[in-house]
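User: These chains co-purify. Model them together.
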Amino acid sequence: MKKINYIIISVLFSLLFIVLYLSLGNEKIYNTQDLVGKKISEVEINLFQSNETFNTKELTNNEFTILNFWASWCGPCRKEHPNLVRLSKIKNLKLIGVNFKDEKDNARNFLRENGNPFDILAEDKNGKNSVNFGVYGIPETILIDSELKILKKYIGPLNIKDVNEIRKIVKK
Amino acid sequence: MKNILKALILFLLIFSESYGDENLSNKILKNLRCLVCQGQTVHDSNSDFALTIKSVVKDKIKEGNNEREIYTFLSEKYGDWILLNPPLKKNSFLLWFLPYLLFVLGVIFLFFLIKKPKIRL
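Assistant: Joint model of the two components:
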Protein backbone atom coordinates (compact mmCIF):
# COMPACT_ATOMS: atom_id res chain seq x y z
CA MET A 1 0.00 0.00 0.00
CA LYS A 2 2.68 2.43 1.03
CA LYS A 3 4.60 1.47 -2.08
CA ILE A 4 1.72 2.60 -4.32
CA ASN A 5 1.51 5.93 -2.50
CA TYR A 6 5.20 6.49 -2.99
CA ILE A 7 4.90 5.68 -6.69
CA ILE A 8 1.98 8.08 -7.15
CA ILE A 9 3.74 10.88 -5.25
CA SER A 10 6.89 10.33 -7.30
CA VAL A 11 4.92 10.40 -10.58
CA LEU A 12 3.11 13.61 -9.55
CA PHE A 13 6.31 15.36 -8.57
CA SER A 14 8.13 14.17 -11.67
CA LEU A 15 5.33 15.51 -13.90
CA LEU A 16 5.32 18.80 -12.04
CA PHE A 17 9.09 19.05 -12.35
CA ILE A 18 9.02 18.27 -16.10
CA VAL A 19 6.30 20.87 -16.75
CA LEU A 20 8.06 23.56 -14.73
CA TYR A 21 11.42 22.73 -16.28
CA LEU A 22 10.02 22.84 -19.82
CA SER A 23 8.25 26.14 -19.19
CA LEU A 24 11.54 27.70 -18.09
CA GLY A 25 12.71 27.51 -21.69
CA ASN A 26 9.50 29.01 -23.11
CA GLU A 27 9.67 32.59 -24.28
CA LYS A 28 7.03 34.67 -22.59
CA ILE A 29 7.13 37.49 -25.08
CA TYR A 30 5.48 37.66 -28.45
CA ASN A 31 7.65 36.63 -31.35
CA THR A 32 6.86 36.33 -35.02
CA GLN A 33 8.34 32.90 -35.56
CA ASP A 34 4.91 31.42 -36.30
CA LEU A 35 4.40 33.85 -39.17
CA VAL A 36 7.51 32.99 -41.18
CA GLY A 37 6.55 30.87 -44.18
CA LYS A 38 2.96 32.12 -44.21
CA LYS A 39 1.63 34.28 -47.03
CA ILE A 40 0.72 37.89 -46.43
CA SER A 41 -2.88 38.90 -47.00
CA GLU A 42 -3.97 40.13 -50.39
CA VAL A 43 -5.42 43.49 -49.37
CA GLU A 44 -5.88 46.95 -50.80
CA ILE A 45 -3.67 49.64 -49.29
CA ASN A 46 -4.20 53.37 -49.80
CA LEU A 47 -1.42 55.14 -51.62
CA PHE A 48 0.12 58.09 -49.83
CA GLN A 49 0.30 60.57 -52.67
CA SER A 50 -3.08 59.95 -54.30
CA ASN A 51 -6.54 58.64 -53.51
CA GLU A 52 -5.79 55.42 -55.35
CA THR A 53 -5.07 52.05 -53.81
CA PHE A 54 -2.76 49.21 -54.66
CA ASN A 55 -3.25 45.54 -54.03
CA THR A 56 -0.52 43.51 -52.36
CA LYS A 57 -1.18 40.90 -55.07
CA GLU A 58 0.84 43.19 -57.37
CA LEU A 59 3.91 42.42 -55.28
CA THR A 60 4.13 39.02 -56.97
CA ASN A 61 5.85 40.91 -59.83
CA ASN A 62 8.83 41.60 -57.55
CA GLU A 63 11.50 39.06 -56.78
CA PHE A 64 11.69 40.28 -53.19
CA THR A 65 9.76 42.99 -51.40
CA ILE A 66 10.15 44.73 -48.10
CA LEU A 67 7.10 46.15 -46.37
CA ASN A 68 8.17 48.71 -43.84
CA PHE A 69 5.72 50.26 -41.38
CA TRP A 70 6.91 53.64 -40.18
CA ALA A 71 5.83 57.08 -38.95
CA SER A 72 7.43 60.47 -38.55
CA TRP A 73 6.56 60.53 -34.82
CA CYS A 74 8.43 57.29 -34.20
CA GLY A 75 11.97 57.77 -32.92
CA PRO A 76 13.28 54.29 -33.78
CA CYS A 77 12.01 54.80 -37.37
CA ARG A 78 14.38 57.74 -37.69
CA LYS A 79 17.18 55.53 -36.40
CA GLU A 80 16.52 52.76 -38.91
CA HIS A 81 15.95 55.04 -41.91
CA PRO A 82 19.59 55.07 -43.12
CA ASN A 83 19.41 51.27 -43.22
CA LEU A 84 16.32 51.41 -45.42
CA VAL A 85 18.21 53.77 -47.72
CA ARG A 86 20.99 51.16 -47.88
CA LEU A 87 18.47 48.44 -48.74
CA SER A 88 16.91 50.59 -51.48
CA LYS A 89 20.12 50.18 -53.48
CA ILE A 90 19.60 46.43 -53.88
CA LYS A 91 18.31 45.82 -57.38
CA ASN A 92 16.06 42.78 -56.91
CA LEU A 93 14.45 44.22 -53.78
CA LYS A 94 11.50 46.63 -53.82
CA LEU A 95 10.63 48.71 -50.79
CA ILE A 96 7.07 49.51 -49.84
CA GLY A 97 6.70 52.04 -47.07
CA VAL A 98 3.46 52.09 -45.14
CA ASN A 99 3.06 55.35 -43.27
CA PHE A 100 1.32 54.41 -40.02
CA LYS A 101 -1.14 56.69 -38.15
CA ASP A 102 0.70 59.80 -39.21
CA GLU A 103 0.11 63.36 -40.38
CA LYS A 104 0.83 63.73 -44.08
CA ASP A 105 2.84 66.94 -43.75
CA ASN A 106 5.03 65.47 -41.02
CA ALA A 107 5.60 62.32 -43.07
CA ARG A 108 6.56 64.41 -46.13
CA ASN A 109 9.01 66.46 -44.07
CA PHE A 110 10.50 63.29 -42.62
CA LEU A 111 11.19 61.89 -46.09
CA ARG A 112 12.51 65.24 -47.33
CA GLU A 113 15.00 65.35 -44.45
CA ASN A 114 16.06 61.72 -44.47
CA GLY A 115 15.54 60.67 -48.09
CA ASN A 116 12.85 58.52 -49.62
CA PRO A 117 13.97 54.90 -50.03
CA PHE A 118 10.51 53.61 -50.97
CA ASP A 119 9.44 52.43 -54.42
CA ILE A 120 5.82 52.68 -53.36
CA LEU A 121 4.59 54.85 -50.53
CA ALA A 122 1.33 53.81 -48.92
CA GLU A 123 -0.53 54.88 -45.80
CA ASP A 124 -2.60 53.39 -43.04
CA LYS A 125 -4.36 56.29 -41.36
CA ASN A 126 -6.10 54.37 -38.57
CA GLY A 127 -3.77 51.38 -38.27
CA LYS A 128 -6.51 48.86 -39.06
CA ASN A 129 -5.00 47.70 -42.36
CA SER A 130 -1.72 46.92 -40.63
CA VAL A 131 -3.52 44.25 -38.58
CA ASN A 132 -3.72 42.28 -41.85
CA PHE A 133 0.08 42.11 -41.73
CA GLY A 134 0.30 41.25 -38.04
CA VAL A 135 1.78 44.63 -37.16
CA TYR A 136 1.45 45.65 -33.52
CA GLY A 137 3.87 48.52 -33.23
CA ILE A 138 6.30 50.38 -35.38
CA PRO A 139 8.79 50.16 -36.91
CA GLU A 140 8.13 46.69 -38.29
CA THR A 141 9.56 45.24 -41.46
CA ILE A 142 8.41 42.22 -43.44
CA LEU A 143 10.53 40.61 -46.14
CA ILE A 144 8.49 38.61 -48.64
CA ASP A 145 9.27 36.71 -51.83
CA SER A 146 7.43 36.71 -55.16
CA GLU A 147 4.89 34.22 -53.80
CA LEU A 148 4.06 36.71 -51.03
CA LYS A 149 5.54 34.32 -48.50
CA ILE A 150 7.04 35.87 -45.36
CA LEU A 151 10.77 35.15 -45.26
CA LYS A 152 11.54 37.28 -42.26
CA LYS A 153 9.76 39.71 -39.97
CA TYR A 154 11.65 42.29 -37.97
CA ILE A 155 10.11 43.96 -34.96
CA GLY A 156 11.82 47.20 -34.04
CA PRO A 157 14.35 49.23 -36.00
CA LEU A 158 16.48 47.50 -38.60
CA ASN A 159 20.16 47.52 -37.74
CA ILE A 160 23.18 46.92 -39.95
CA LYS A 161 23.18 43.23 -39.00
CA ASP A 162 19.62 42.93 -40.30
CA VAL A 163 20.60 44.74 -43.50
CA ASN A 164 23.39 42.22 -44.09
CA GLU A 165 21.03 39.35 -43.36
CA ILE A 166 18.50 40.68 -45.89
CA ARG A 167 21.32 41.15 -48.43
CA LYS A 168 22.28 37.48 -47.97
CA ILE A 169 18.68 36.27 -48.34
CA VAL A 170 18.01 38.18 -51.56
CA LYS A 171 21.36 37.20 -53.08
CA LYS A 172 20.56 33.47 -52.90
CA MET B 1 -50.61 55.25 -31.62
CA LYS B 2 -49.67 52.76 -34.34
CA ASN B 3 -46.72 54.89 -35.37
CA ILE B 4 -45.47 55.11 -31.81
CA LEU B 5 -45.73 51.33 -31.48
CA LYS B 6 -43.81 50.85 -34.75
CA ALA B 7 -41.11 53.27 -33.64
CA LEU B 8 -40.85 51.48 -30.31
CA ILE B 9 -40.47 48.07 -31.98
CA LEU B 10 -37.86 49.46 -34.36
CA PHE B 11 -35.96 51.02 -31.46
CA LEU B 12 -36.04 47.75 -29.52
CA LEU B 13 -34.84 45.78 -32.55
CA ILE B 14 -31.92 48.13 -33.17
CA PHE B 15 -31.08 48.29 -29.47
CA SER B 16 -31.15 44.50 -29.01
CA GLU B 17 -28.97 43.98 -32.10
CA SER B 18 -26.32 46.48 -31.02
CA TYR B 19 -26.47 45.11 -27.47
CA GLY B 20 -25.86 41.61 -28.84
CA ASP B 21 -22.91 42.84 -30.92
CA GLU B 22 -21.50 44.63 -27.89
CA ASN B 23 -21.74 41.46 -25.80
CA LEU B 24 -20.02 39.37 -28.47
CA SER B 25 -17.35 42.02 -28.94
CA ASN B 26 -16.64 42.10 -25.18
CA LYS B 27 -16.52 38.32 -25.02
CA ILE B 28 -13.99 38.15 -27.86
CA LEU B 29 -11.86 41.02 -26.54
CA LYS B 30 -11.65 39.35 -23.11
CA ASN B 31 -10.15 36.29 -24.80
CA LEU B 32 -7.43 38.25 -26.61
CA ARG B 33 -4.01 38.99 -25.16
CA CYS B 34 -2.74 42.55 -25.47
CA LEU B 35 0.66 41.95 -27.07
CA VAL B 36 2.19 45.19 -25.86
CA CYS B 37 0.90 45.02 -22.27
CA GLN B 38 1.90 43.13 -19.16
CA GLY B 39 -0.73 40.49 -18.45
CA GLN B 40 -3.69 42.44 -19.77
CA THR B 41 -6.42 41.47 -22.17
CA VAL B 42 -7.25 43.63 -25.17
CA HIS B 43 -10.56 44.37 -23.42
CA ASP B 44 -8.85 45.81 -20.34
CA SER B 45 -6.17 47.76 -22.16
CA ASN B 46 -6.28 51.24 -23.63
CA SER B 47 -2.98 50.88 -25.49
CA ASP B 48 -2.81 51.91 -29.11
CA PHE B 49 -2.61 48.27 -30.19
CA ALA B 50 -5.64 47.29 -28.08
CA LEU B 51 -7.71 50.19 -29.43
CA THR B 52 -6.92 49.14 -33.02
CA ILE B 53 -7.82 45.49 -32.32
CA LYS B 54 -11.08 46.60 -30.62
CA SER B 55 -11.96 48.54 -33.73
CA VAL B 56 -11.03 45.66 -36.06
CA VAL B 57 -13.11 43.18 -34.01
CA LYS B 58 -16.12 45.53 -34.17
CA ASP B 59 -15.72 45.79 -37.95
CA LYS B 60 -15.45 42.02 -38.31
CA ILE B 61 -18.66 41.51 -36.29
CA LYS B 62 -20.43 44.09 -38.47
CA GLU B 63 -19.22 42.22 -41.56
CA GLY B 64 -20.94 39.13 -40.18
CA ASN B 65 -17.92 37.15 -38.98
CA ASN B 66 -18.56 34.82 -36.06
CA GLU B 67 -16.42 34.40 -32.94
CA ARG B 68 -14.39 31.48 -34.30
CA GLU B 69 -13.68 33.29 -37.59
CA ILE B 70 -12.39 36.33 -35.72
CA TYR B 71 -10.08 34.20 -33.54
CA THR B 72 -8.81 32.40 -36.65
CA PHE B 73 -8.16 35.71 -38.43
CA LEU B 74 -6.22 37.15 -35.50
CA SER B 75 -4.23 33.98 -34.80
CA GLU B 76 -3.24 33.87 -38.48
CA LYS B 77 -1.87 37.39 -38.16
CA TYR B 78 -0.30 37.24 -34.70
CA GLY B 79 0.02 33.52 -33.98
CA ASP B 80 -1.78 31.61 -31.20
CA TRP B 81 -0.03 33.84 -28.63
CA ILE B 82 -2.81 36.41 -29.05
CA LEU B 83 -5.42 33.89 -27.88
CA LEU B 84 -5.80 33.53 -24.13
CA ASN B 85 -7.54 30.23 -24.73
CA PRO B 86 -5.06 28.39 -26.93
CA PRO B 87 -6.43 25.78 -29.36
CA LEU B 88 -5.76 22.07 -28.88
CA LYS B 89 -2.70 21.30 -30.99
CA LYS B 90 0.20 18.88 -30.86
CA ASN B 91 2.34 21.27 -28.86
CA SER B 92 -0.47 22.28 -26.48
CA PHE B 93 -1.61 18.69 -25.82
CA LEU B 94 0.16 18.52 -22.47
CA LEU B 95 -1.28 21.87 -21.44
CA TRP B 96 -4.83 20.65 -22.02
CA PHE B 97 -4.60 17.14 -20.59
CA LEU B 98 -2.08 17.42 -17.75
CA PRO B 99 -4.62 18.92 -15.29
CA TYR B 100 -7.00 15.98 -15.90
CA LEU B 101 -4.17 13.48 -15.53
CA LEU B 102 -3.05 15.11 -12.29
CA PHE B 103 -6.62 15.07 -11.02
CA VAL B 104 -7.00 11.35 -11.72
CA LEU B 105 -3.66 10.59 -10.08
CA GLY B 106 -4.66 12.74 -7.12
CA VAL B 107 -7.95 10.86 -6.71
CA ILE B 108 -6.12 7.50 -6.83
CA PHE B 109 -3.63 8.79 -4.29
CA LEU B 110 -6.39 9.96 -1.94
CA PHE B 111 -8.23 6.69 -2.38
CA PHE B 112 -5.22 4.69 -1.19
CA LEU B 113 -4.50 7.18 1.55
CA ILE B 114 -8.00 7.13 3.01
CA LYS B 115 -8.58 3.42 2.57
CA LYS B 116 -7.39 2.00 5.86
CA PRO B 117 -6.23 -1.59 6.13
CA LYS B 118 -8.69 -3.86 7.89
CA ILE B 119 -7.63 -4.46 11.46
CA ARG B 120 -8.08 -7.93 12.77
CA LEU B 121 -9.69 -8.01 16.16
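The mean pLDDT of chain B is 84.
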